[in-house]
Amino acid sequence: ELKVEQNPLFLSMQEGKNYTIYCNYSTTSDRLYWYRQDPGKSLESLFVLLSNGAVKQEGRLMASLDTKARLSTLHITAAVHDLSATYFCAVGSSPNFGNEKLTFGTGTRLTIIP
Amino acid sequence: GAVVSQHPSRVICKSGTSVKIECRSLDFQATTMFWYRQFPKQSLMLMATSNEGSKATYEQGVEKDKFLINHASLTLSTLTVTSAHPEDSSFYICSASPGQIGNTIYFGEGSWLTVV
Question: In this predicted model, what pLDDT tens digit does every residue of B92-104 receive, in sequence order?
């Protein structure tokens, strides 16, 4: 059974600081997704990582994937208040199939303090 | 704009009644869609895979007779919660993708169900 764990579960950080959210998963997969969820809302896609060593960046967020370690990271640079949200990683588990079911991590609730 | 749309966004129903939630892909055809459930402050759990033209595939522990899924066309899947109970109150979200590897998997806006 695929398990996906994130840490930390809760993160409170000051504006301007850097931090990393970690996502570990238990079985082999080379497809890792990151999503953002605001309170009461659905999921917004941030990154799709499809191979070992993949790195993607958008604004103050950068995601990477190490399939050998079964680890993905989401790095936040110089945090701003607008980044406050819950962040989920999710692992794809349908081989050779783009439209696939996802197993989600526990989520990291990020609060940026002015 | 949204590429996967859900309706209704919020619904309140009485115990024992049934509620239907629709999920539509707006810009692409989807032979497969997925239904998830999210309780407050928790993660998303996959409920079932909706397959156009065939029966849905349910995850372990999900009652297929309670959560009826119909994939009527290449752009529409429906989830019907039958004989709803208060414990069915949750946020229900569907997902779909154009299907090519590397495509973003899009989620609908979600549907808040409250059973009173």
Answer: 999 998 877 667 8
Paired residues of B31 in beta bridges: none
Q: Is beta strand A108-113 parallel, antiparallel or unpaired with respect to A10-14?
A: parallel
Which pair of structure tokens corresponds to residue A80?
């701003």
Closest CA–CA distance from residue B41 to any residue of chain A (Å): 9
Q: How many Cβ contacts (< 8 angstroms) between chains A and B?
A: 65
H-helix or E-strand spanning residue A78? none
Paired tokens of B75: 């752009």
Pairing of the two strands A55-58 and A43-49? unpaired
Q: Is B72:B10 a contact under the CB 8 Å cutoff?
A: no
Q: What is the pLDDT of residues A9-33, one digit of tens each?
A: 999 999 999 999 999 999 888 789 9
Helices (H), chain A: none
Instruction: Give the whole-angstrom CA distance, residue B89 versus residue B92.
Output: 9
Residue with tokens 């990582």: A49
A4 and A90 Cβ atoms separated by less than 8 Å: yes
Q: Are B94 and B108 in contact (CB under 8 A)?
A: yes
Name chain B contacts of A31, Cβ cutoff 8 Å: 101
